[in-house]
Give the backbone structure.
Amino acid sequence: MSSSVVPTSVAVIGGGVAGLSAACALADAGLQVTLFERRPYVGGRASSYLHPGTEEVIDNSQHVLFGCCTNLINFYKTLGVDGKIRWFDAFNFIQPGGRLTTFRPAAFLPAPLHSVPAFIRSPLFTPQDKIAIGRAMSAMTKPLRNGADEDCLAWLRRHGQTEQAIRRFWEPVLFSALNEDLDKASIRYAIKVFRELFLNTAFGGNMGVPALPLSELYGHAIEYIRARGSNVRLRDSVIRIEPRDKGITLTTSSAQHVFDFAVLAAPYHSLSSLLPNDAPGDELRRKLEHFHSSPITAIHLWFDREVTSLPHAALLDRTIQWMYQKSKLQRRSATTGSYVELVVSASKLLLEKSREEIIELGTREFAEFFPAARIAKLVKAAVTKEVHATFSVAPGLDEHRPGAKTGWPRMFLAGDWTATDWPATMEGAARSGYRAAEALTVEIGQPKKFLVPDLPASGLMRSR
């Protein structure tokens, strides 16, 4: 009489990018996974929903990736949705009044020189600005001295950056990448992001934009998990976690469950209430006290006609910072109108403003860049505020970012806020999910590799 081996059971708590990547990796490895998500859709802070005021499906905010996001790209390939990403190798910068400058890498030059011609030709900067930017770029190709960490603004000024170079170049790039004011963000992560995007390789800075709503994109993970005999429980909130010697007991809004292991992939700001009241729980809570949130506000505008032919652009010298024309990016059904999304990173000053005030600000500033908007009719509008969009990558935060392993032998952590070597990004979230999955397979004696290496440096950067 044959006996079957019962697969190891794993609860994954949280259906954001971190939880989904962990769950897919573990299900693929043959473990019995159950993912719990309190909302009726997955994606976490990278999600979409039917907005009640407009009857449109909108993303909570535009999320983009880059060629250097090797683990996120691997995750998309695993799900079979990598073909749903639209890639761009050029960045459009627009000044009030509509003057357009496009930055595109020079394929004939080795890294990091592929970025040089675009800066030399750019009318955005004076010769002094360009010399200053080049000086800082050169410094970024070298390791930080003695592992020093300071805020971005102090570092940029220490390296002779002009105020215009900071305002028109470093702020649009780093402010959005880190979602934090430059005087509050770690230079360590600024350099990490800048090297990966613009210095190590030409492809690393290519921007990818999902061509479908985010929850639809990540919804493919539900199919992937279920196709491997595992489960996804939507609208099921985890209320309490109790680690035990021989398993993990979860109390949810529907029932009580027992698993062999658990991956806790909840956002840092909602974690404390779930943690057990014991020594490991208290230690993790002390680490969490050092984390603070930085918000993102998105302004969604529907016009009765096309107001620009550009799919995306960085908007300089105003409150709104990025424009994404969703009607082009998502190739929505052809109409005479257009749908654009405006993004404001680190939008602390907008949190207390009303919907009407934000829409007025957004439409007024948008028309400064795209004059056609002045004669177009605004058909409808919406505002989304993601208060806990990212954690603030403050100098010195690294010592408080926990790893995948915890003080509980059967419980692991995932989330962009854990020790990923990346700031708060979807790439960091995907890496954290893979790290947690790797640590768990080591614990059960069946070690597997899920993490994908960084893009190898090319050209002159190979020796840096």
Remarks:
- The chain has twelve helices and 20 strands.
- The mean pLDDT is 94.
